[in-house]
Write a structure and sequence with these properties.
three-stranded parallel sheet; Arc Repressor Mutant, subunit A; Rossmann fold; single chain; 54% helix
Amino acid sequence: MDVRMPGTDGLEATRRITAAVPGTAVLVLTMYEDDDTVFAAMRAGARGYLLKGADQAEIDRALRATAAGEAIFGPGVAARVLGYFAGPRPAAEVPFPELTPREREILDRVAAGERNGAIARALQLAPKTVSNHLSSIFTKLAVADRAEAIARAREGGFGRRPGP
């Protein structure tokens, strides 16, 4: 499975596959190696994560390992995952630290019930820019749609507007 694909993205496809057929082994083969994407894939249900450029023997080994129930990562990704868990945990001062400040601002407005056009006008952005930010937010939060993002955002304290 690749992370970015036309139509449904790979993370959403992984979520759907593992929900429909629990125990299905999904191996991600992608060019994206940032922590957010790796962890989003794992939250979506992937059992393995390799970077494009892996040789055929490594891909074959990873396919067999994930099919056998193992979790497998390419060497670079494995080092980053281990480093993440071995390092000190940062204090969770800000809800959704995986989001950029602009993404948190947009998520807050979405959780408050604002539509994309209103958000774009308020933040002086193009509507397409807001849509792109929302796609990134959905990926980083490993949510399938706007409603799920709103629910997560409200659990994190977003969407509250002061009264008049």
